[in-house]
TrEMBL record:
This is FtsX-like permease family protein. It is a multi-pass membrane protein. It holds the Pfam family FtsX. It is found in: Cell membrane. Its main location: membrane. Belongs to the ABC-4 integral membrane protein family. Residues 271-387 form the ABC3 transporter permease C-terminal domain. GO terms for cellular component: plasma membrane. InterPro entries: ABC3_permease_C (IPR003838), Macrolide_Exporter_MacB (IPR050250).
Length: 394
């Protein structure tokens, strides 16, 4: 350690700094990528603001959430969602029914099929990207299971629906399969994106969609959406319905627990890259240093240090430089993880994606030691080729 620190005050400072910096940057890369991999593999992103969970039947599969209108359904959804909303940890809960329906303009007779989403509206809440605020009012059609309450007919439509039927807010539209009429209360800014393209869609009060699609008898819906900032509610959501799965919003964008080998592949790739860069820097710089300071090794030999001791000294110096670079790299990598999370929070809305744990820090430090060990052979070769008499005679 003294020899390494001493070099920082001599002409060898540049080579030592380059070697330490090279290892530091490699280890920093390893820390950032491994932290990101750990976050992807461990589902740490459920701590993001305004978490959305979907409770879906097992048969429907997570891959089609949140737009799955076929397969098994959930029953008694108004009662269950009321229980969820009573939990102080939950900000909002609503069943979501999804069904294709036909709309008809009462004057022009223009018709089109749309994907209808039924939800319990609440101010400043969104369902599949649609703001339900324009639907907030008297939600009475369900009427405690009788479905005898007043009909509002309120619908929020996508731009594609407005353009196709040439309707604007306050216009009436007829709902197929029903004698009821709807009233356009708002035109959304965007169409519904299903993952395979945009589709025309409308959002309306859940009970009213149930009424026109025959889902009132068992009070059914396709899924239940839960909004919360407390990840401890997940066990409650898992147990509230038998035969269901709980999927997080972050999981839908690929940021929840991963069942693929991508996170592992990322971590392994980062290890190989960091190792290669680190070994190259340390071996090259130590080789240059030994070439420039052969007289020092020769003097050590002349005063009685055996070849074994000189080799041990070179090995320790090499590993020490790698460890110093590793410690610096862990610091840089920690800052990189924090910066990465800030960027992701700004552009994706997930506040904690990359997760830096003590295990990752130890892993990075072990990687730095491994870099030093792997870089030892080349400096050792140069050290063993040093001729004491020839070096002293220079």
């Amino acid at each position: 350690m003294r020899r390494v620190v001493g070099r920082l005050h001599t002409g060898a400072r540049g080579r030592t700094v380059v070697a330490v910096t090279g290892v530091a940057l490699a280890v920093a890369l390893l820390v950032v990528v491994t932290s990101l991999s750990a976050g992807l593999a461990g589902g740490a992103t459920v701590q993001s603001e305004d978490i959305d969970y979907w409770i879906v039947p097992d048969e429907s599969g997570a891959g089609s959430v949140p737009l799955n209108a076929e397969g098994a359904q959930l029953s008694e959804v108004h009662q269950i969602s009321a229980q969820l909303r009573a939990d102080p940890r939950i900000d909002y809960a609503t069943p979501v029914a999804i069904a294709p329906i036909q709309l008809r303009h009462p004057t022009t007779n223009d018709r089109m099929y749309v994907l209808a989403l039924g939800a319990i509206p609440e101010s400043e809440r969104h369902v599949a990207g649609f703001n339900t605020t324009p639907l907030v009012g008297t939600y009475s059609d369900q009427a405690n299971g009788t479905y005898a309450g007043s009909w509002t007919g309120q619908v929020v439509i996508s731009p594609a629906v407005a353009a196709e039927l040439n309707v604007t807010p306050t216009d009436d539209i007829e709902l197929s399969g029903s004698t009821r009429r709807g009233t356009v209360t708002h035109v959304s800014d965007t169409n519904l994106n299903t993952g395979v393209g945009e589709v025309p869609a409308v959002v309306m009060p859940l009970a009213e969609l149930q009424s026109i699609t025959g889902q009132t008898e068992s009070d059914t819906a396709d899924q239940i959406l839960v909004s919360t900032t407390d990840p401890t509610v997940r066990p409650l959501l898992t147990d509230i319905y038998p035969g269901t799965s709980v999927v997080s919003r972050t999981g839908l964008t690929g940021a929840a627990t991963s069942t693929t080998s991508l996170p592992l592949a990322m971590a392994l790739a980062a290890t190989l890259v960091a190792g290669g860069i680190g070994v190259a820097f340390v071996a090259t710089m130590m080789g240059l240093e030994l070439t420039a300071s052969r007289q020092e090794l020769a003097i050590l030999g002349a005063i009685g240090f055996s070849a074994r001791v000189r080799i041990l000294l070179v090995s320790i110096e090499t590993v020490t430089i790698a460890v110093l670079g590793g410690l610096l790299g862990i610091g840089i990598g920690s800052g990189g993880v924090a910066g990465l999370n800030l960027v992701i929070a700004e552009f994706v809305g997930v506040t904690t994606l990359a997760t830096l744990t003590p295990g990752i820090i130890l892993y990075a430090l072990a990687a730095a030691v491994a870099v030093g060990v792997l870089a030892v052979p080349y400096p050792l070769y140069l050290a063993t080729q040093t001729n004491v008499l020839a070096a002293l005679s220079r």
